[in-house]
Amino acid sequence: MNQLFKNMHWTSSLRNSRATLFISSHKSLKFCNFSKDHKDQGSWESMEGLFHCSANLVPLTPLRFLERAARFCRERTSLVYGSLEYKWGETHQRCLKLASSLSQLGISRGDVVATLSPNVPAMYELHFAVPMAGAIICTLNSRLDASMVSVLLEHSQAKILFVDYQLLEVARSALDLLCKRTSSKLPILVLIADSDSDSTIDTSSISYEYEMLLANGEKGFEIVRPKSEMDPISINYTSGTTSRPKGVIFSHRGAYLNSLATVLLFRMDLFPVYLWTVPMFHCNGWCLPWGVAAQFGTNICLRKVKPKDIFDNVTNYKVTHLGGAPTVLNMIVNSASFDRKPIDHKVLAMTGGSPPPPQIIAKMEELGFTVSHLYGLTETYGPGTFCVWKPEWDLLAPQERSRLKARQGIPHVGLDEIDIKDPETMESVPNDGKTMGEVMFRGNTVMSGYLRDLKATKEVFKDGWFHSGDLGVKHQDGYIEIKDRLKDIIISGGENISSVEVETVLYNHPAVLEAAVVARPDNHWGQTPCAFVELKEGYDDMDSQEIINFCRDHLPHYMAPKTVIFQDIPKTSTGKIQKYVLREKAKALGSIS
Questions:
Q1: Which NCBIfam families match (predicted)?
Q2: Which of 36, 260, 336, 550 counts the most CB atoms within 10 A of its CB?
Q3: Pick from 527, 516, 438, 515: nearest CA to 490
Q4: How far apart are CA 239 and CA 254, in angstroms?
């Protein structure tokens, strides 16, 4: 078993109502207290009749969702992928057999099993099968290069790597690099094939093929259940938009609670039809592989996210829910007319990952999608807040409705608290919609910590709150609104400029497809906004000065970009704009004299 997880345990003092995480090799080392100290208000530990046993105390785990679906909705469709279709009873049996096969390969409690795959059925099944074997699933970003995959395999100490056939060469190269750096045993390579797989695939380095491995498992496998609900269920590496990715540890308890919270904020009734446009490797698909099972829903798997495939699946399967970053929504609203199909039923599109431009929300709703906005981070299991829509807002003008929907809103039911604070004084900012502070979380759906990075864990849990690194404001009604990342704020002549506000104005220009704003060094002002703009088709002759003038007409002049660069906008595989890449480009331009 991985040494970190051997030495991780949670203690709780009922008398002081405290929960503290300890990691140690020989003796306990306290590094975070999640609650404020307070005087003993009396003890109930000896209350007569108080009794805990298996009848009223069972560790929370999302594995129960699959067992429940298989028991009560055995014949309902669980998953569709092209011509492939499974029922919940079949999915349960397949996951049990796969867990059994993992056990036969020597996987036991606390071991890490990695994946490198798009949203195919195997990725869905592995979210249950791996923890059923007592192991921890580590879903690697399917668009990483071999070098980074190698680094993450070494850091996670994964014992098995499940790889999709289209990513086989990346995996092989990663293992070659890993072999040169370490004498440790390399992960076992398991190939996930597909109906359209090339029959000429070189399988010489493959230990097992997914379906054959699964077939060798036992249907009656006894699930290795968590000893504690705080046992790790997954490791998610952050997207790396600002720095080297960190391994975020999710627990069974947090995954269970955030699955249910996400279902609620997504307004997912029983028997939803969910289209997988959010990568399952990203925050475990916002915890929805487990959440859809909780609602006896149908998963529509999608290998590639393209507008035509989205519209085809929405209409063919009567999809009720889908999700994605604002860039996915932007792709949909700017899709070719021949790729679209009329939508004659309600489809809820949930967006998050970065503040969505109000214009994109408005255009999505014109196409027939109802857009809701959520906010969170990998460290909060994905969704942490959502913009609760108030019925009285229906009477507002469309532009005002879209502006309100772009806010990040209020915490979901799984969180204890969210606040915007001055990170130095830890005082809450006023609810004036203007004063910026750092967004901070605490509650049961905040990560357990960063894998093998105690220093970084202590830093983000300072003062008993998780520090997000995002800057925001609180409105009079308590709703929060993200203004920027701490690293993305532009300080010009002593004034703070929100790159998000400048980007929102840029999206109003008819020629702008996508935009990102970062700081460029300026000899006089210190920094000034530099806009990177991707143009729509037919606007190739656009002049940068016209973009600058447009911004000056709609913003205070000091906020308008002084530099405009026309180019494609670099993004992570989850649709987040890679501003650190753009910052380097702006820096390379040199200071404005």
A1: PRK08162.1
A2: 260
A3: 527
A4: 20
Contact 574, 286 (CB under 8 A): no
- How confident is the model over 550-586, as pLDDT tens digits? 999 988 788 899 999 999 999 876 677 888 899 899 9
Side chain identity, residue 307: P
pLDDT score recorded for residue 21: 41
> In whole angstroms, what is the distance from residue 117 CA to residue 163 CA?
6
Which residue, chain included where needed, has tokens 């359209």?
196
More confident residue, 410 or 10: 410
Tokens representing 238?
């952050």
Average pLDDT, the chain: 88
Region class of 492: left (phi > 0), else alpha (psi between -120 and 50), else beta:
beta
Which tokens hold the place of 104?
């036969």
Length of the chain: 593
Tell me 592's DSSP state: B
Q: Hey, what are 66's tokens? A: 């699959």
The rounded distance, in Å, linking the Cα atoms of 593 and 581 is 23
Q: 552: burial class by Cβ within 10 Å (0-12, 13-18, 19+)?
A: middle
pLDDT tens column, 370-422: 998 899 999 999 999 999 999 999 999 988 988 898 899 999 999 999 999 99
**Structure tokens that stand for 412 in this block:** 């979901």
Helices (H), 192-295: 210-215, 252-265, 283-286, 288-294
Going by pLDDT thresholds of 50, 70 and 90, the confidence category of residue 306 is very high
Indicate the SS3 state at residue 558. Answer: helix
Q: What is the pLDDT of residue 144?
A: 86
CA-based R_g, the chain, Å: 24
Q: Are strands 437-443 and 415-421 parallel, antiparallel or unpaired?
A: antiparallel
Assess contact for 271 and 298: CB atoms under 8 A: yes
Amino acid at 68: R
Q: For 529, how many CA atoms within 13 A lie in the half-sphere containing its CB?
A: 30
- Mean pLDDT on 588-593: 86
Residue 163, C-beta contacts closer than 8 angstroms, at least 6 positions apart: 115, 116, 117, 170, 171, 189, 190, 191, 192
| pLDDT tens-digit readout, 188-215 | 999 999 876 666 677 777 889 999 999 9
User: Is pLDDT above 90 for 444?
Assistant: yes
Neighbours of 41 (CB within 10 A): 8
Does 361 score more than 60 pLDDT? yes
User: Residue 9's pLDDT is what?
Assistant: 40
Q: How many whole angstroms separate alpha carbon 129 and alpha carbon 92? A: 9
**Closest by Cα among 499, 587, 482, 492 to 551:** 499
Among 369, 354, 570, 572, smallest CA distance to 470 is for 354
Terminal Cα distance for the chain, rounded: 58
> What's the pLDDT score for residue 500?
85
Inter-residue contact 350 to 291 (CB < 8 Å): no
Integer CA distances (angstroms), 558 to 375, 449, 512, 528, 593, in order: 29, 40, 21, 8, 16
CATH of domain 495-588: 3.30.300.30
